[in-house]
Design brief:
The structure is a homodimer. By secondary structure, chain A is of the alpha+beta class. The first copy, chain A, has a domain at about 195-345: HIT-like (HIT family, subunit A), CATH 3.30.428.10. In chain A, about 25% of the residues lie in helices and about 20% in strands.
Chain lengths: ~350, ~350
Amino acid sequence: MARVPTHPAITGSYRRPPEWRMNPVTGEWVIIAPERSSRPMLASPHVTPRTVRDPCPFCTGHEWHTPAELRAYRSPQSKPNEAGWRVRCVPNSFASVKPEGNAEPHGDGYFFRADGVGRHELFVECPQHEPNLARLPVEQIREVVQMWRERFIEASSDPKLRYAQLFKNHGADAGASVEHAHSQLIATPMIPPVISEELRFAMLFQEEHDECAYCELLHRERVDGSREVAESPSFVAVAAYAGRQPFETWIVPRVHHSNFDAITTEAADELGTILWTVLRKLDLALEGPAYNLVFHSAPFHEPPSAYYHWHVEVLPRLTQLAGYEWGTGSHVNPIRPEDAAVVLRESAEKG
Amino acid sequence: MARVPTHPAITGSYRRPPEWRMNPVTGEWVIIAPERSSRPMLASPHVTPRTVRDPCPFCTGHEWHTPAELRAYRSPQSKPNEAGWRVRCVPNSFASVKPEGNAEPHGDGYFFRADGVGRHELFVECPQHEPNLARLPVEQIREVVQMWRERFIEASSDPKLRYAQLFKNHGADAGASVEHAHSQLIATPMIPPVISEELRFAMLFQEEHDECAYCELLHRERVDGSREVAESPSFVAVAAYAGRQPFETWIVPRVHHSNFDAITTEAADELGTILWTVLRKLDLALEGPAYNLVFHSAPFHEPPSAYYHWHVEVLPRLTQLAGYEWGTGSHVNPIRPEDAAVVLRESAEKG
């Protein structure tokens, strides 16, 4: 198994703060975060998640393993950073970005960089050592979604920041380095490339069709029906027409809003319910797959957009990203989305 | 371990030809290739590579395991599809795209698709069961590069195709499903998003600075020196300033050419030599890492471009792509490129 050498050039940078750098030939901003290379077992992409026997930093009773909590849902008698919580939000111990610093890019006219400004928060999704969100009661997922909503709204008020990425890595194959169910928020002063490109395309679509591309998706998918996975009064879950990963499933709100922070607490509860349904279907159909879950929402500090529409993408990780995908940004999906939808529709609790 | 269910909806599509589909909300083209889901062990991203004891489809003596060869470098006495070859190019048995069909997109005004037209070729890099290109003699790598050059030029003459991606997956963590050293070419009628974006940015750079962004990179990196890894008369290898993966290394030709197919056979030999040097350095420094190798070149059937500059990117796979990267297209690299360059410069054969 490959490993990163413990060379003084590497270890000597462990304490360097993170830095944004612009790739001078593509314009892409990358975070260089040397502190993260001191994480346990970085060198193997197949990180063996900590088992229940190791001291799990996220289990109740181990609150001192993490930085002081930013927010928690806890019983009224309990105290911050002690037991008694149900969902907990803390700063990431191995943060990719830090709140301090100057986000203004500077450079020599060719190589540009900026301080690694941003927020990196971690959500511990339950107090007990349960790795799988899909196996928690639906009420627990609803509280997780409420916490995501709160912290997202909180990040969106920061004038230094322009975008927040809410995401979840489940399983080592999806990049999780800790087994205990958790999710994360990284908020940045840069609008990342996937979002810029989605915004650009959605704006073109609106100009051409006088309609939001996602509202049109909801309409077309309802008429077609072959890719529908689940639905509820305010949300639709569909197998993505051009999914990049097998069983890629999108959850799209029926009512047009460009920003996730516009969601009501009632709708957040309902999102928790349909998310639980989708995750259980994937868990049953694929026998406990690793997956990533990502939110897409419009940038902060802008008026609500008529062309962009926030949504959630669930990406099971059944194939490895290889050279073709890295080289081109294109994807090869070996499962037809309509076939995946059949399997997921049929996949439900027995009895 | 997760697995794809053997549901009739899935197995019933095994014989469907591949299809291009456009994501209606991003404009991204994805290949849906159901035949590939019949590949052995698709379901696990940690494909256990076939070991030497299993019948390796790429070893000499097993030529009948692959489709008939498109080209081979072989001893004059030997016959096609028999032993006696040194490097062999065959169609991929589980092709993502196929030569037949109509590449013209068609749709209902919202969902667009096209036949999965393209070429998917596979290069077997040596006759014996050696997984690691870096452990082959340098002469062998030079012949591999010559074969890449030949097949790339051959693909570029096809009027149906606009782009060819040459790439190599080494190790299961980099997506290789067969252990025996091999690489691939996928040529498509679409220009993929990473290339479009690179072309767009390079054109803007040229407009603003009246210089090729890559020629400027060569100049700046020579003056700076801190990211240099290796060099030869016609090529420079540098740790990428904003590398997305730890130890990401680029090999850039000193002379400006937009297209890889402009390379002379002499320069292809020299590329083989510097590639061998870089791969050996990575192999020694990181103790046999998985990696992807990708070529970037300008699209076919266009006049040579003053702003684009072909190059090779070597991406060791030491971190797993997780939700943040999927959600945003942004990357977090825990190793400073200057630190990686120190390690790689020092990493060389001991006398």
